[in-house]
UniProtKB/TrEMBL annotation:
Its EC number is 1.17.99.6. Binds 2 [4Fe-4S] clusters per monomer. Its cofactor is cob(II)alamin; [4Fe-4S] cluster. It is found in: Cytoplasm. This is Epoxyqueuosine reductase. InterPro entries: 4Fe4S_Fe-S-bd, 4Fe4S_Fe_S_CS, QueG, QueG_DUF1730. [4Fe-4S] cluster 1 binds at residues 197, 200, 203, 257. PROSITE patterns: 4FE4S_FER_1 (PS00198), 4FE4S_FER_2 (PS51379). Belongs to the QueG family.
Length: 363
């Protein structure tokens, strides 16, 4: 900070930052110190167990993930912000999951890519702080660097890390994004809220692939979100049936969480549904060529998986659908696809279809 400030001035600045954050569209802003030693130990244990699968980036930066001052020298505090994303007017999630002719897209990906939205707002917040106090050291993050964002948000009083490993707030549940600003300002910190999962194990019980292997411990190698988003190669056959019609991500652990009964739809225009992806028909999606995929996913987080993995995921969902002439014909249309990855999943899906009795109603 370029100008010395006493405790009262820093407290006033912290309160003002929170007000500015709300004006920029964040529902909550908190401030954390940078002692993440307990969370770092848990991360190292998780990595040692191989639970990160092929997500090598989780271990790539040494200890910087748990030590903010090593990632950005001079950092003494972290401003953590929450932005709710539950899209209004979306088709009911369980209804979509129970209609196998439809594809389920994780609700966070139905609107504009959250990375862009949060990063721009956080940058504006940082610039507003600089305009008020002068130049200071900072860096903005939104799931874009080795940052323990849930741990920092927990320390900043934005909620607690639930048994499913998502951050939870008793007032609004877990349907929100997180972003951070690392700063060199010795701002007063907020108090953690404490955990409120109690004896509930709903998220462990509902997980289709039993990826939550213990409370607060997720094995990504079993997780549907990992398989449909992070994994670049073939989806392990032992998990394909359990994936059902989930073609991008999985929300089951959030859908069943009792705290999410308090969730409210987001008023953020950027998170409104695009291209009807809240309840799309699988056959239609499987017909998208790469050009149409790129058009329909422009500005969306979905684009990151690319057209090849998009078809891979949908092929699995079609294999899990009731047998019909329409589904079989649609799959056969991709049997000669240039990608070996797509062809392998199409072949699996056709084998699954052949093992079922015919649904004469079609899809």
């Amino acid at each position: 900070m370029t100008v010395a400030a006493d405790d009262a001035q820093l407290a006033e600045l912290a309160a003002t930052i929170k007000t500015w954050g709300r004006e920029l569209g964040f529902q909550q802003v908190g401030i954390a110190d940078i002692d993440l030693s307990t969370h770092e130990a848990r991360l190292l244990d998780w990595l040692a167990g191989g639970f990160h699968g092929e997500m090598d980036y989780m271990a790539r930066h040494g200890l910087k993930r748990g030590r903010p001052a090593e990632l950005l020298p001079g950092t003494v505090r972290v401003i953590a912000a929450r932005m709710d994303y539950l899209p209004p007017a979306a088709a009911a999630s369980w209804s979509v999951l129970n209609q196998p002719e439809l594809g389920y897209v994780s609700r966070y990906a139905l609107g504009r890519d959250y990375h862009k939205v949060l990063r721009q707002r956080l940058q504006r917040l940082a610039e507003r702080i600089a305009a008020a106090i002068g130049p200071f050291g900072y860096r903005v993050f939104t799931d874009s660097a080795p940052v323990l964002e849930k741990a920092l948000a927990e320390k900043a009083g934005l909620g607690w890390i639930g048994k499913h490993s998502n951050l939870l707030d008793r007032r609004i549940g877990s349907w929100f994004f997180l972003g951070e600003i690392y700063v060199d300002l010795p701002l007063p910190t907020d108090r953690p809220t404490g955990a409120h999962c109690g004896r509930c194990t709903a998220c462990l019980d509902i997980c289709p692939t039993q990826a939550i292997v213990a409370p607060y411990r997720v094995d990504a190698r079993r997780c549907i979100s990992y398989h449909t988003i992070e994994l670049r190669g073939p989806i392990p056959p032992e998990f394909r049936r359990a994936i059902g019609n989930r073609i991008y991500g999985c929300d089951d652990c959030q859908l069943v969480c009792p705290w999410n009964r308090f969730a409210q739809p987001s008023g953020e225009p950027d998170f409104r549904i695009r291209h009807g992806l809240d309840a799309p028909r699988l056959i239609e999606l499987f017909g998208w060529d790469e050009a149409k995929f790129l058009r329909r996913t422009e500005g969306s987080a979905i684009r990151r998986i690319g057209h090849e993995r998009w078809l891979r995921n949908i092929a699995v969902a079609l294999g899990n659908a009731p047998r019909s002439v329409a589904v079989v014909t649609t799959l056969q249309g991709r049997m000669a696809h240039p990608s070996a990855l797509v062809r392998e999943h199409v072949a699996w899906a056709l084998t699954e279809q052949a093992s079922k009795s015919v649904d004469t109603s079609g899809l």
